[in-house]
Amino acid sequence: MTTRRDRYLEGLEVYQVGGAVRDARLGWPVQDTDWVVVGATPEQMQRRGFRPVGRDFPVFLHPETHEEYALARTERKSGHGYTGFVVHASPEVTLEEDLARRDLTINAMAETPEGELVDPHGGLGDLQARVLRHVSPAFVEDPLRVLRTARFLARYAGLGFIIADETRGLMRELTESGELAHLVAERVWTETEKALGEPRPAVYFRVLDECGALAVLFPELAQDAGMLDAALTRLDRLPDNVMLGERACWRWARLVEHLDEPSRAAMAERLRLPRRYRDLARQAALTRRLWKRPEPDVAEVHDWLDGIDAWRRSERVPPLLALMSLEAPALAGELERGWSAVSRLSPRTLVVEGFEGGALGEELARRRRAILAEALASR
């Protein structure tokens, strides 16, 4: 939406751009507000009190609101990947030139502080028609746009959005050109993590699969179409107690829980996944292996508890049992009763009885199995 001019902006030609302009017109929550400044130099911005933060091009933080103000710029392809660009920012760059470098028409709209729309590429029309369409043939210069377009569809598919056929063609062209291989792991994961937090994350992976990008970036997922379909249906089958901020991590765990340990580890290493994503994926995989058993025995249940480090990290058990209840409710109920009983057994009790060292560990394991056996005996 519009904002009043303040003393820091007096005399500057400033436009609101990107997501805030798009989402306000969709009635979608506006998360971030970005601005473009036309006709200014870095020195002028700093003299006004703006703090430079841009590493690759001139971006400044407002002294009070801390919103981002970027100088209008153009880009020229100079190498591979999303970083292979020469950026030109100068007072001579126009707003229209700045908007022309953007990925999708719905992201290439601007608005004056007074609320006047600047829309040289028909973004408003595409917004109303619910179409994701590239701004120009230069779309194929940046492989990251394949992931971004898929992510935007994961966000807006529920509103009826589609990807324009010609844009899908350019996404396939980018995949076939080999440009995707030049994306650094951090950017692939950043887009993917954002997609996992969108309303329809399965759409992201389906779009990547349809244009061939999944086989390049996530080959472990693309090997078996049937397994992929099953994995994507699980993305929203999450325990009820999963908090909003944890949803992306749980969705990733559900996506990869069917993969074997070497495949999961290879993908985690390649994408440089955060530790919490790696750990939860492993725990979900161990849980899946247990509930896929027709009737797991006491030793397998005990091994599962060992595997998820339940004895030291007891907080892991309830959400994993909740996950299991979605797939094997009877087994989850048995294990919930067993866990409730076995977790009351304290090693201190055995120490008082005189057990120590290796004997303590062996007796503790024996009694835990006995308790679990009693819980499973009712099946």
TrEMBL record:
<feature type="binding site">
    <location>
        <position position="151"/>
    </location>
    <ligand>
        <name>ATP</name>
    </ligand>
</feature>
<dbReference type="InterPro" id="IPR032828">
    <property type="entry name" value="PolyA_RNA-bd"/>
</dbReference>
<feature type="binding site">
    <location>
        <position position="151"/>
    </location>
    <ligand>
        <name>CTP</name>
    </ligand>
</feature>
<dbReference type="GO" id="GO:0042245">
    <property type="term" value="P:RNA repair"/>
</dbReference>
<dbReference type="Pfam" id="PF01743">
    <property type="entry name" value="PolyA_pol"/>
</dbReference>
<feature type="binding site">
    <location>
        <position position="19"/>
    </location>
    <ligand>
        <name>CTP</name>
    </ligand>
</feature>
<protein>
    <recommendedName>
        <fullName>CCA-adding enzyme</fullName>
        <ecNumber>2.7.7.72</ecNumber>
    </recommendedName>
</protein>
<dbReference type="GO" id="GO:0000287">
    <property type="term" value="F:magnesium ion binding"/>
</dbReference>
<keyword id="KW-0808">Transferase</keyword>
<comment type="function">
    <text>Catalyzes the addition and repair of the essential 3'-terminal CCA sequence in tRNAs without using a nucleic acid template. Adds these three nucleotides in the order of C, C, and A to the tRNA nucleotide-73, using CTP and ATP as substrates and producing inorganic pyrophosphate. tRNA 3'-terminal CCA addition is required both for tRNA processing and repair. Also involved in tRNA surveillance by mediating tandem CCA addition to generate a CCACCA at the 3' terminus of unstable tRNAs. While stable tRNAs receive only 3'-terminal CCA, unstable tRNAs are marked with CCACCA and rapidly degraded.</text>
</comment>
<feature type="binding site">
    <location>
        <position position="22"/>
    </location>
    <ligand>
        <name>ATP</name>
    </ligand>
</feature>
<feature type="binding site">
    <location>
        <position position="102"/>
    </location>
    <ligand>
        <name>CTP</name>
    </ligand>
</feature>
<keyword id="KW-0460">Magnesium</keyword>
<dbReference type="GO" id="GO:0160016">
    <property type="term" value="F:CCACCA tRNA nucleotidyltransferase activity"/>
</dbReference>
<dbReference type="InterPro" id="IPR002646">
    <property type="entry name" value="PolA_pol_head_dom"/>
</dbReference>
<feature type="binding site">
    <location>
        <position position="148"/>
    </location>
    <ligand>
        <name>ATP</name>
    </ligand>
</feature>
<dbReference type="GO" id="GO:0000049">
    <property type="term" value="F:tRNA binding"/>
</dbReference>
<feature type="binding site">
    <location>
        <position position="32"/>
    </location>
    <ligand>
        <name>Mg(2+)</name>
    </ligand>
</feature>
<keyword id="KW-0819">tRNA processing</keyword>
<feature type="domain" description="Poly A polymerase head">
    <location>
        <begin position="15"/>
        <end position="133"/>
    </location>
</feature>
<feature type="domain" description="tRNA nucleotidyltransferase/poly(A) polymerase RNA and SrmB- binding">
    <location>
        <begin position="160"/>
        <end position="222"/>
    </location>
</feature>
<keyword id="KW-0694">RNA-binding</keyword>
<keyword id="KW-0692">RNA repair</keyword>
<keyword id="KW-0479">Metal-binding</keyword>
<feature type="binding site">
    <location>
        <position position="22"/>
    </location>
    <ligand>
        <name>CTP</name>
    </ligand>
</feature>
<dbReference type="GO" id="GO:0004810">
    <property type="term" value="F:CCA tRNA nucleotidyltransferase activity"/>
</dbReference>
<feature type="binding site">
    <location>
        <position position="102"/>
    </location>
    <ligand>
        <name>ATP</name>
    </ligand>
</feature>
<keyword id="KW-0547">Nucleotide-binding</keyword>
<feature type="binding site">
    <location>
        <position position="19"/>
    </location>
    <ligand>
        <name>ATP</name>
    </ligand>
</feature>
<dbReference type="InterPro" id="IPR050124">
    <property type="entry name" value="tRNA_CCA-adding_enzyme"/>
</dbReference>
<dbReference type="InterPro" id="IPR012006">
    <property type="entry name" value="CCA_bact"/>
</dbReference>
<keyword id="KW-0067">ATP-binding</keyword>
<feature type="binding site">
    <location>
        <position position="148"/>
    </location>
    <ligand>
        <name>CTP</name>
    </ligand>
</feature>
<dbReference type="InterPro" id="IPR043519">
    <property type="entry name" value="NT_sf"/>
</dbReference>
<dbReference type="GO" id="GO:0001680">
    <property type="term" value="P:tRNA 3'-terminal CCA addition"/>
</dbReference>
<feature type="binding site">
    <location>
        <position position="34"/>
    </location>
    <ligand>
        <name>Mg(2+)</name>
    </ligand>
</feature>
<dbReference type="GO" id="GO:0005524">
    <property type="term" value="F:ATP binding"/>
</dbReference>
<dbReference type="Pfam" id="PF12627">
    <property type="entry name" value="PolyA_pol_RNAbd"/>
</dbReference>
<keyword id="KW-0548">Nucleotidyltransferase</keyword>
<comment type="similarity">
    <text>Belongs to the tRNA nucleotidyltransferase/poly(A) polymerase family. Bacterial CCA-adding enzyme type 2 subfamily.</text>
</comment>
